[in-house]
Amino acid sequence: MMCYRMFMAMWMAMCLVPIATISPNSVLIRSLSPNDIVVYIPLHIIVYRDGRYEKLVGCDTTPAGVDPSSGVQSKDVVILPDAPLSARLYIPKSQNRHVKKLPLLFYYHGGGFICGTAAEPNTHNLLNLIAAESNAMIVSVDYRTVPDNRIPTAYDDSWEAIKWAAQHVDGNGPESWINEYADLGHVFFAGESSGANIAHQMAIRAGSENMGGSINLEGIILLHPFFWGATSVGSEDPNSKYIEYVEMIWTFDYPETSGLDDPFLNPAMDPKLSNLGGSKVLVYVAELDNLRNRGWYYKYILEKSGWKGKINVIEDKGVGHVYFLSDPSLESARAMRTNISTFINT
User: Fold this and answer.
1) Within its chain, how far is the Cα of 327 from the centroid?
2) CB atoms < 10 A from the CB of 205, how many?
3) 193 catalytic, yes or no?
4) Is the Cβ–Cβ distance between 253 and 113 less than 8 Å?
5) Catalytic residue among 124, 186, 224, 321
6) What is the predicted pLDDT for the residue at 34?
7) Strand ranges for 169-295 from DSSP E
8) Could you tell me whether strands 37-41 and 73-80 are parallel, antiparallel, or unpaired per DSSP bridges?
9) Would you say 283 and 299 are in contact if contact means Cβ atoms under 8 Å apart?
């Protein structure tokens, strides 16, 4: 499908614009007729009456290889050919690998379950930095996305990737990098936005299902997690248009959902919350992010659930949703990566 490069700030200003107001003469969208559009989700997707669609962000890709600034190596691997399901693997340069085995981080990109891939440039650049600075191996899961594959496909694909990695526990799995470098006793799940939602769900499954001792999940890292609920929390405005936006995305992602209190979207409604795998959680929120309160609320409900681990929430001031992807040089983005490294290595 054809992708358009959108200017983020302009799209945010257009958030929740009714379909009837989209002009075919728009600077950004020149070929659209409002009568031909059946779904329009700003920042995500346009679906036409004839079934075609255009994803609006996260469409660009960059190849795997050696990152010239960090020396991190990456490559793409196939996990399930028939799905298809793949992942991009990262290992730090050899002189940084002080020990043979490295912590293994599963990473899930964001994009509202609709946009983005493991090869998206901002995601790729972020993971080069994390691999280098945390001295960790990374499996960036290229799970299938909406609308071709509705939820729960993203969750199922992500779990398949974990099971695939678990095959390497004895050092004789199908992927040489995992056999040689990954410490399956030192595993973490992480992601941003909807990817953080996936990381949480994978930790629930890891804590609820028997993995046969093949991997040991130590903790999860949730960056600006995409959670919501039918009842406002914290300083959320119950009359905010953002609620409509979340509902628009979620019902498009998951037509069979029970609503905004679906346990996939609202962890407070999940009876398995206390089963969360791992003993520690790091959550990042942003002051100017509409999802900010949900990150803080996650700490409250997780501690209240009876889960026995430790959770820490850090809030960055003056920044918005997933700002660290577009500007990794900001001091707050650097501090975030330092904290991720400390979280993984202590």
Assistant:
1) 17
2) 19
3) yes
4) yes
5) 321
6) 65
7) 182-192, 217-223, 280-286
8) unpaired
9) yes
